[in-house]
Amino acid sequence: MAAVENADRRRRILVVDDSSLVRLYYHSALERAGFAVEQAINGIEATEKVLAQRFDLLIVDINMPGMDGFSFVRDLRHRKADIAALPILMITTEADETDISDARAAGVNYYLVKPVSEADLVRHATALAGPAS
Amino acid sequence: MNELQQQFISESKELVLQATDDLMTVERSGFDAERIDRVFRAFHTLKGSAGVVNLPAMGLLLHAAEDLLAAVNAKKRPITTGLVSEALECLDQVSAWVDAFEARGVLPSDAGERARDAALRLRALLSDNTSSRSTPNRHGPVWAAALMQEVAATDASDKALLAVAYEPLPGCFFDGDDPLALVASIPNLLALSIEPREPWPPRPDIDPFACNLRIHAITATTRDELAAIFRLVPDQVEIFDLAPVTTPTATAAPDTKTTALLDDIIACQIDMLNAGDAGDNSYGRYGSAARAAAHALRHFERDDLAFDVEAALESAIAQQNGNLVRDALRRVTAALAAPSEDRDRDPDSPAAPSRSLRIDEAHVDSLFNLSGELIVAKNSLAHLSKLVETVVGDGDLGRSIRRANENLDHLITGMHSAILQLRMVPVSQLFRSFPRVARDLSLRLDKRAELTIQGGTAECDKTLVERLFEPLLHLVRNAIDHGIEAPEERRAAGKPEQAHIALEAARTGDRLTIEVRDDGRGIDPAAIRAKALERGLMSADEIAALSDEKTTQLIFSAGLSTATAVTDISGRGVGMDVVRNTVEQLGGKIAIASRLGAGTTVRLDLPVNVAMSQIVVVEASGQFFGLPMDVVNETLRLTPDRVSRIKNNRGFVLRDRVVPICSLAEALNLPDKPADDRADHLVVVAEAAGKIIALQVDGIHDRLDAVLKPMKGLLANAPAYSGTTMTADGRVLLVLDLKELFS
Question: What CATH architecture applies to the domain A9-129?
Answer without folding.
Answer: 3-Layer(aba) Sandwich (3.40)
